[in-house]
What we know:
Chain A: One of its GO terms (cellular component) is plasma membrane. Chain A: This is Branched-chain amino acid ABC transporter permease. Chain A: It is found in: Cell membrane. Chain A: It comes from Lientehia hominis. Chain A: Keywords: Cell membrane, Membrane, Transmembrane, Transmembrane helix. By secondary structure, chain A is mainly alpha-helical. Chain A has two domains: about 15-140 and about 185-305, Orthogonal Bundle (ABC transporter involved in vitamin B12 uptake, BtuC); about 145-180, no CATH class. Chain A contains 14 helices and five strands. Chain A has helices spanning about 5-30, 35-60, 70-85, 95-120, 125-140, 190-205, 210-220, 220-225, 230-255, 265-270, 270-285, 290-305, 310-330, 330-345; strands spanning about 145-150, 155, 170-175, 180, 260. Chain A has a three-stranded antiparallel β-sheet with strand order 2-1-3, covered by helices on one side. In chain A, strands 4-5 form a two-stranded antiparallel sheet. In chain A, strand 1 and strand 2 (about 155) form a beta hairpin. In chain A, helix 3 (about 70-85) runs antiparallel to helix 4. Chain A is globular and about 75 Å long. Helices cover about 70% and strands about 5% of the residues of chain B. The longest helix of chain B is centred in the first third of the chain and has 30 residues, at about 1-30. Chain B has one domain (about 1-115, about 135-280). Chain B has eleven helices and four strands; from the N terminus they run ααααβββααααβααα. In chain B, helix 1 packs antiparallel against helix 8, helix 2 (about 40-55) runs parallel beside helix 4 (about 90-115) and helix 9 (about 220-235) packs across helix 10 (about 240-260). In chain B, strand 2 (about 130) and strand 3 form a beta hairpin. Chain B has helices at about 1-30, 40-55, 60-85, 90-115, 140-160, 165-175, 175-180, 185-210, 220-235, 240-260, 265-280, and strands spanning about 120, 130, 135-140, 215. Chain B has about 290 residues and is mostly helical. Chains A and B meet through helix 5, helix 11, helix 13 and helix 14 of A and helix 4, helix 9 and helix 11 of B.
Amino acid sequence: MRHLQKTTKSNFITYGIVILTAVIIQILSSAGAVSSLIGGLLVPLCAYMILAISLNLVVGILGDLSLGHAGFMCVGAFASAFFSKMTAGTMPDGLRFFFALLIGAAAAGLFGILIGIPVLRLRGDYLAIVTLAFGEIIKNVINVFFIGRDSSGLHFSMKDSVALNLDSTGEVIVNGPQGINGTPKDSTFLIGMFLLLIALIIILNLINSRAGRAIMSIRDDRIAAESIGINITKFKLMAFSISAALAGVAGVLYAHNLSSLVASPKSFGYNMSIMILVFVVLGGIGNIRGSLIAAFILTLLPEMLRGLSNYRMLIYAIVLILMMIFNWSKGGGRLKEMVAERLRGLRKPRTKEVK
Amino acid sequence: MSFLSYLINGVSLGSVYAIIALGYTMVYGIAKMLNFAHGDIIMVGGYAAFLAMVNAGLSPLIGVLVSIVVCTLLGVVIERIAYKPLRMAPPLAVLITAIGVSYFLQNLALLLFGADTKTFKSVISFKGISLAGGALQISGVTIVTIAACIVIVVGLSLFINKTRAGQAMLAVSEDRGAAQLMGINVNKTIALTFAIGSALAAIAGVLLCSAYPSLNPYTGAMPGIKAFVAAVFGGIGSVPGAMVGGILLGIIEILAKAYISSQLADAIVFAMLIIILLVKPTGIFGKKIQEKV
Lengths: 355, 293
């Protein structure tokens, strides 16, 4: 390992943590040591971790605040659930889920590009509010869609399920505000962890590539980056659409774990986007491994401490505010230095090996 | 006649948006930050008036005053605790803090008052008028809301242009550093802006709950975001812009609800925002800002 670069080593440590976690939890759950409550959280946990690292790509690496991440997840979830319902029984489960993943990622990625082209011209606050607006539009539009299938093909409506005019063999697939019912349960914890690993490999390799450095240079100084010939639009769009596609994958995972998929404000609204943002902020903006750990702890902790769950959202809010004040204010800066000084004092001075 | 009554309802809803948008636009112009929590201050204002009127049995007028006082204090306290330490921080940090404050207020209200929707008692006892032999009904709330909006916009314009404190606000919004060199107390000016903006949010909250009498911890979130759309529409930082933007947005929303689809009305309002930002990002009355390197 000595010849590996520092970043490569750090990336392998991250992959190792993920694999180790997957193995430990799998052993625990096959030994029956995982309660059914936590067991039910494992697939959403994978989805949240994928969402957290993909949002970190936009917030931490690209440096733009997106508040519509749940919208991309929603697109991936509904596109893939629709596909799975349509093709149920026509192909083996594994193959169908593989295609569902591809379709979810492609649909969300496509939306990422479509939304990114206009939105990424904006900056800062405007960009945040427009991504929020897009997230809400996606959710609202899905809620008025009715799609049914019968012997004569597909029927669409934006009014209600009666307006679909289905014959006796008909089946409503997307039922407006009631969403999609009976999606096959293809998601498992191991598949989730595997997808997380792939998402990590994509993101970490992107960050350490030429494109990744271009993206970070845009974050650090847009004008300087532009003046040395970096194509701002291209790289911004690249980061944004990759992030959206990964959020779509998380959506596929999430959708195939539920028997009924509804575009409710709770699962795909603004609150969901904020929750993912909390993971990113608490784990450290731009720190991919941090996002993973924060998502892991913040998802499992409130379930383990039942008394805490009522106050969970309140604590999230306080965490957001305190983290920002601690990181950016003058007093917070001093406090940080003091803590760092203490920690340095505790640690033994490192001795350098000289060859 | 139905079109006319939709139009009047639109102007009324738009007046509420305009009052909220004034708070947004002032804070944005002076503190250069998007105060995400502004919408939730509306909700706090609604609850304050509700508790004063229903639980304490005070008269509606006192209820409104209580609501204004509570929100003004809340606005100043939020600014002091959460935003002031971040004066020099990058915009992303300030924005995340503001989202945190918004989330905090919503969830605190959820814990204190519960998730159930409370039925708000209108503060306006004025009956309203009917025109054209009863074909066109205009409710008291509608008239009071529109009148309040006009009074506030005129009053605020006079305040900003004619008083020393208002001039100080203009100076800070123009160039914070230069204003400080001219002896203006920037921190005080920003605190004053938050106080005025929050007081306006309280008034908007009471009017909104009187017109649409349901109050829950998320009441303020949507109108808050829509008022931001209105502020952007009119040109952020501009007082007349906020009013025009708010009223136009209210009309668009009500007409979309009536003629297109009530479920898609929100989506249409947000689509408006996106179109405006793409076509004319500085809004109707906005100034073009040159970027300096």
